[in-house]
Design a protein that fits this description.
three-stranded antiparallel β-sheet; 118 residues; 20% helix
Length: 118
């Protein structure tokens, strides 16, 4: 597949929407609740712009404005509003192809620049 590119480099992309669901482990309700409770307690003793260690694998990073919209009430009750809960070692898997739009090639597709015409 070729495309117009001024820099002359190839690029990899998904033609379908990118699926990020497998990057982080599914949220286990018990450990998720424990992390939220830990964050709530730490926030009561520290400043709102601290990085908090929640476990050996997870930390809470300040992210002002996060969960201010649709999930504002539940995040506030949970104690996670304004913080992003991160896995320290990064994602567990790479993103993959989503299911939509249908009819497109799944997986990574390499786009190469068109040959320059003289």
């Amino acid at each position: 597949m070729s495309y117009t590119c001024r820099t002359g480099i190839s690029a990899y992309t998904f033609l379908t929407r990118t699926f990020y669901g497998h990057i982080l482990r599914q949220r286990d309700k018990v450990t998720s609740h424990q992390r939220s409770e830990t964050l709530k307690k730490l926030r009561a003793t520290g400043g709102d712009f601290s990085v908090y260690k929640l476990s050996d694998e997870h930390e809470a990073l300040p992210h002002p404005g996060l969960a201010d919209g649709l999930f504002k009430f539940s995040a506030k009750v949970e104690g996670t509003n304004g913080f992003a809960l991160w896995r320290k070692k990064g994602g567990r898997m790479l993103p993959s192809s989503g299911e939509t739009p249908t009819g497109l090639t799944k997986g990574l597709v390499k786009l190469t620049p068109k040959e320059k015409r003289e």
